[in-house]
Amino acid sequence: MATISVTKSPARARAFEISADEAKRLPWLLLTPGLVALAVVVAFPMLYSFYLSFTNYDLTRPTTEFIGLQNYIKLFSNATFWQAFGRTVLFMTLAVNLEFLIGLAIAQLMAKALLGRGLLRTVLMMPMMFAPVLVGFQFKWFFNDQVGLVNNLLYTLTGEPHIIPWLVQVPLGFISILVAEIWMGTPFMVIILEAGILSLPTEPFEAAEVDGASGWQKFRHLTFPMIGPFIYTAMAIRSLDLARVYDVVSIMTGGGPGTRTELIWTYVYRLAFTGHDYATGSAMSYVTVVVSFLFTFFLFRNVIRSRWEGRE
Amino acid sequence: MSTIGYAKAGRRPRIGDYLRDAVLYLIIFIFFLPVLWIILTSIRPNMEINTRPPIWIPRELTLDSYKILLGWPTPEGAFGLGSNIPFGQYARNSIIIATVSTLFSLTFGTLAGYAFARFAFKGKNGLFLGMMLARAVPGIALSLPLFVLYARLGLSDSIPGMIITYVALNVPFTAWLMDGFFRAIPAELDEAALIDGCSRWSAFLRVDLPLALPGAAASGIFAFLTAWNEFALANVITRTPASRTFPPALYEFTGQFVSDWRGMCAMSVMMLIPAIIFVALVQRQLMTGLTSGAMKG
Q1: For the whole model, what pTM was predicted?
Q2: Under DSSP, is residue A4 helix (H, G, I), strand (E, B) or coil?
Q3: Which positions in chain B touch A237 (Cβ < 8 Å)?
Q4: Cα B15 to Cα B6, B18, B20, B23, distances in angstroms
Q5: DSSP 8-state symbol, B52
Q6: Which value does ipTM take for this structure?
Q7: Model confidence at B4: pLDDT above 80
């Protein structure tokens, strides 16, 4: 029976001598349970909604007809959709960068903290433990115009009642949602970036110390470039999460008032479930998901390249 | 964890170091404020919560909201809104679904991660990318087709249906993290075990798996939190208290015009407790796992 080596190292090749059949089958065997779950929960529904996006499917209509590309044509001339699309991209960009900057600052402080790091980390991770719906409800209440925490603070600090409609006015609604999302997302950044900082070797820093480098110089020329992969990973994962943002927005403003804070997925929901136009909603999900796929592909292409290619 | 060399190059702490720590405590306190406020709200009488001008220092503390949730007698009886919420049932569903789905995602994700880390096979890159793509699909996009499918399979409004859903949502990220953790383990260890006559399977069980356990703890946190907190799919799949989890149940505290913030805060605190305990127990392993190289590249 022919044998193949699984890795390039000669010593390992000897140790890993397994039959060619087995080497082909084994990884797939290991992957099967996960792939089956993904096929049922992700792949099938996506195929089904792909089909629906070419029909006039409606939960309340008894018959469904094939209508070709009409839903897609409708979507491309839908200004609200493209506004929501643009707003989502803006939201993502602002959130991921602000989370990164705040997260990096906290991670740097955390890595140097003298005591209580474990407790601090547990406390800091609390926002990660909140269900996004819960964050939505709580921040909706904090930004409530009548009895919200924010207006109450202003009342107490200035001595006069302020009834600022945080969730209603034009830039304020967007900012309120951004604040909620940043509160929820920053701890994840901190954890990954802190892990990056803690994994650095000590020698370069000692050498820099001897050469009399300032704290900023050490950060700028050592820490920052060396934690590059961690930064990349943290930002890639958060971007993917932010591209799917729905729960928080849907509860805080529902995309409204009107369409002032509408993001893609709140709009898809509004159209598909509230507006009973599931087919157009599917078409929109598809366009968005394809864009996210391209985005993911570009993000993870580098990860894949640095992971295995050139090593096999 | 002893990777702290970065911080202090063997010198005594100076005043500046304490000041820096003070800034850190302040920032973390700001992040903690909403949590504090929720806890405080859950133990104040409703009267104090909705007054203007605001009352900052509680004049009266009461555990009534928790008693109501747990079905114990209180002077008020029940919540104005969302009365008779079957809290015990929701707790049971959430705990079973989150725990079991985490165990399955860890098992499946570990096997998949091992396949990625230790084997070269055709279609590997494509498959890895495909798994990451699965993470880019939001619950909203899956909800209706999944609802239709589960109705056919008899899985809607059932605990097994929810478990399968969360296993699928968590496998990609778990596989990705585990791949990193396995690759951080020197292959020579495997090799030595094989030379000593271990089978591939027992090398995996006795060498790789124990070494990857901190990584598994890290992946476990993320999987558990996703399953514990997911809303969009739970909202569609669970229609009754038979399988409903906490996140969709939060809606039962809201009405069209008024919401019962105190009741919601009490339930939020109850939801947070298991998560906090879990994270406090494994945060050390989380950091060890993440620093060991899973994130590099």
Answers
A1: 0.86
A2: strand
A3: 173
A4: 19, 5, 9, 13
A5: S
A6: 0.85
A7: no
